[in-house]
Structures are given as C-alpha cells and as structure tokens.
Write a structure and sequence with these properties.
Length: 245
C-alpha cells in the first residue's frame, strides 16, 4: 500500500508540472490596423526579425505586425510610432477582454529617442463603462531607446528584453488592481505627452490569463524533474529488493 501511495504522489507531481508547463504563453492583441511606421528604417532596424514573427520574452509571446513598403515586396515590421514634434494620442481597438483575477498585460514599447528621468507618455487601457487604467512610460525606468548606442539606454524596470544585434525590444508588464476584475477592455491608447524628451513606439501587445492558459512557470519544470527523479529512485530500490528476495 505504501508503494502504491508513493507512486500516486509522484505521478501527481509529474502531471501537475506537465499541466503547468503546457500553459499557453499569452494571446497577442493585433495592432496591425494602426501601424504607421516601418521599424526596418530605424537605426539598425534590419536586424529585427521578419514581420509576423513571434518574439518570446520571459515566457510571453509577442507577434510583430507588418508594414507594407511602396514596392510591395515582403512586408517589413510595422510599429505604432507616437510623437511628431507635438503631443499625440493613438487609439488601438482591441477584442473585448474580460478582466479576471490573474489577467496581466504585456507590451513591447521602446523609444526612437529618449531623455532619462522624463515621463514622456503612457499606455491607457480603456474599459466598457468608462473606466481607465494608466501605465506611465518613463525614460530611464521602464522605457529606453531601441538602439543600444545613443540617447537613453537604461531601463532597469522592464519585464524583459529581446536583443537583435545592437537593437532590442523591451517588454513591460501591466498588472491591474483587483478592482478591475469583471471589467471589459475595449481599446488601448498610446499617449505621447512630452515628445521633446522621448518618442515611444508600440511594437506588440499581449494579454495573459493563467486561468485559461498563462505563462509557463519555471517551478513547473522543477516539479516534473523532481517527480521523474523520485520515480527513478523508487524503481531502483524496487529492483534491488526483488534481486535480494
């Protein structure tokens, strides 16, 4: 009976780890209808992957949008660029997303240029009924230049980074307070309030809800490895006991 209990416990550990590891890495929200700039024309921009590619940062998947150049060859990567010398606001319609207890949003936002310590804009999440949530974009904190060689190159509080030669895309994590549970997201607004200090652009946006499929947890792999190791040790002991008998 003890052996059966051990087997059951180890099997449960492996299944739990497998279930956690199999969770999806988020649902990309398309920005395709609102792209207005060609990322390939930015400094070092040709190092970025192809349009439509998936960029994974910290277990979260982002899908790069397309920008169609005048010659209509293969599409380049499109972004939503704010700032043309004056404050701007660009609204991006989204599929309705009902906020759950664990819903988290992730953005890919960098600057064409930036001056550290300045809050140059924000991402505003707009909900049905008029509620909003504002996520500030501050140079030198959660926002920096996409090119690692000029302007502001420091952003210690980003969620993670994908690097492409001398260029990069930084991810930000947006966690909503519990008071938003049950609200329905209808759009996202990229605001640029101080273009003289930075011009943020949005390259992708993803929503993750672990309740219906979330980011794989590193602990899941530890659970699975522990389970496999335990099963292996148990089988070795069982074989030794059988040989002695």
């Amino acid at each position: 009976m003890a052996m059966k209990a051990i087997k059951a416990a180890l099997a449960a550990t492996i299944l739990l780890g497998a279930a956690s590891a199999a969770q999806a890495a988020g649902t990309p929200i398309s920005i395709q209808n609102d792209v207005n700039s060609n990322l390939y024309t930015y400094t070092g921009g040709l190092s970025y992957p192809a349009a439509g590619s998936t960029v994974t940062i910290g277990g979260v998947d982002f899908t790069l949008a397309s920008f169609f150049p005048p010659d209509f060859n293969a599409p380049d990567v499109g972004v939503i660029q704010s700032g043309d010398g004056s404050p701007t606001s660009i609204n991006i319609a989204t599929p309705n997303v009902t906020i759950g207890a664990t819903t988290t949003f992730y953005s890919l936002v960098n600057s064409a240029f930036g001056v550290a310590t300045n809050t140059v804009g924000d991402l505003t999440l707009n909900f049905a009924g008029g509620a909003t949530f504002v996520y500030d974009l501050t140079e030198g904190d959660n926002l920096r230049d996409h090119f690692n060689g000029s302007f502001n190159i420091s952003a210690p509080n980003v969620y993670g980074t994908a690097t492409f030669s001398d260029d990069r895309l930084d991810a930000q994590q947006i966690v909503l307070p519990g008071s938003y549970v049950g609200d329905v997201l209808t759009s996202i607004t990229l605001n640029n309030t101080q273009p003289q200090f930075g011009n943020p652009f949005l390259a992708a946006f993803t929503v993750v809800d672990p309740g219906v499929g979330g980011v794989p947890e590193p602990a899941a792999w530890a659970l699975m490895l522990t389970g496999f190791a335990g099963l292996g040790a148990m089988l070795r002991r069982h074989r030794r006991q059988a040989a002695l008998a």
